[in-house]
Amino acid sequence: MAVVTRGFGGRRPASERPVPPGQYLTDDFPVLSTGPTPNVDAPTWEMTIRTEAGVEHGWDWAGLQALPAEDVTVDIHCVTRWSKQDTHWRGVPVDALFTEVETAAEFAVAHSFGGYTTNVPLDDLLDGRAWVVSEYEGEPLAPLHGGPVRLLVPHLYLWKSAKWLRGLTLHLDDEPGFWEQHGYHPYGDPWSEQRYA
Fold first, then answer.
1. What mean pLDDT, rounded, does the chain reach?
2. In this structure, what DSSP letter does residue 158 have?
3. Are strands 70-77 and 82-93 parallel, antiparallel or unpaired?
4. What is the pLDDT of residues 78-113, one digit of tens each?
5. Would you tell me how many other CB atoms lie within 10 Å of the CB of residue 141?
6. Cα separations (Å) of 96 from 12, 54, 55, 59, 99?
7. In whole angstroms, what is the distance from residue 11 CA to residue 27 CA?
8. Other Cβ atoms within 10 Å of 166 Cβ, number
9. What's the average pLDDT block by block, 10 residues per block, for the chain (197 residues)?
10. Domains of the chain
């Protein structure tokens, strides 16, 4: 029996795909950060998911690498108006981290080494919509782009894809992160131009 998926017809070439309103295409990958690049070595990297009840689930580098990884090709969009099409990443789907996490939470706050935070509805991290990535374009993720590990939530503006990921804290209510506390939109959908609150 044949299985037909949404991608059966193939992906349209980048030149034929639209970009979100107000965006321009670039071949570069501009680097924008709120502070200095943290120095995090992959062998000593660790992350946790902390539920609203205070239960913690943790992974070290070896534990993350042992999980099933996926190759992901996605377009990314920065709130500063650039978009980059057909970027290639490799990482663990966030779903794989939640296999034993019991939660009633509806929101997550991503925490980075260096103190950065950003809020994301939990539904936007699950069901194949987000990854914890450690490779970009076939190479280990460079520190300037969030290495050794960053969150990748490609359907939202890139500030939601927290660099230097060290954990997710789950909440029953939405808790604004760094940019959201400084006037950025709480959700950040590029197709709706949700740049600012």
1. 92
2. G
3. antiparallel
4. 999 999 999 999 999 999 999 999 999 999 999 999
5. 23
6. 29, 20, 17, 12, 6
7. 19
8. 19
9. 39 75 94 84 96 98 97 97 97 97 98 97 98 98 96 98 98 97 97 96
10. 42-192 (3.90.420.10)
